Amino acid sequence: MRLGIDLDGVVADFDGEWIRRYNAEFGTALTLDAISHWDVYPEITRFADMDGFWDWLRGSDGPRIFRSLEPYDSAIAALRRLRANGHDIVVLTSRPDWAVSDTFAWIAEHSVPTREIHVLHAKWRVACDVYLDDAPHTLRQLRHQRTGALVCRFVRPWNEPLSEVGDIADWEAFEALVAAHNR
């Protein structure tokens, strides 16, 4: 099967990395508990809006954020097992233009087992049998546009259950769901 897999919040820990950088730069003590909903960043940082947040990330010194994210525990290993079981891993990720080359480098550095990478906002445009994402707006679009596909929400504090979208708590559960759906 074709498995459409998001990166941030699913495979890579975007929030952990930006919080680490923010705390180091501004002397704050933000924790992951502060991430209670999508696009919460202006509410918990010194940035007035999301543009300010993204401008800060783009302009930070050292390795750019999308190059230095840590993979979530077991994410890469699960993707490798899914690929070894004959599934196609299709990376579907949204990125600012300035982050695309860093994203490709990150995928290569972590040996993500894919031959297909799409950097786009309308992830529903790429046909897959199963989708795994954490973004509420993306999940709603997938549910509406890809009615024949299995759409799964990687459960995170910033998203809520949606009807006709399966909840996935961890990579083990996703592997089990794919195996059951593949029968």
Structure overview:
By secondary structure, this protein is an alpha/beta fold. It folds into 2 domains: 2-13 and 70-181, HAD superfamily/HAD-like (Rossmann fold), CATH 3.40.50.1000; 14-67. Helices cover 37% and strands 14% of the residues. The protein has 7 helices and 6 strands. It has helices at 14-26, 41-44, 50-59, 75-84, 100-109, 136-145, 171-181, and strands at residues 2-5, 88-93, 116-119, 130-133, 150-154, 166-168. Strands 3-2-1-4-5-6 form a 6-stranded parallel beta sheet, sandwiched between helices. α5 links the parallel β2 (88-93) and β3 (116-119). α4 packs parallel to α7 (171-181).
Q: How would you concisely characterize the structure shown here?
A:
By secondary structure, the protein is an alpha/beta fold. It has seven helices and six strands, in the order E-H-H-H-H-E-H-E-E-H-E-E-H.
How is the topology of this model organized?
Layout: E1 2-5, H1 14-26, H2 41-44, H3 50-59, H4 75-84, E2 88-93, H5 100-109, E3 116-119, E4 130-133, H6 136-145, E5 150-154, E6 166-168, H7 171-181
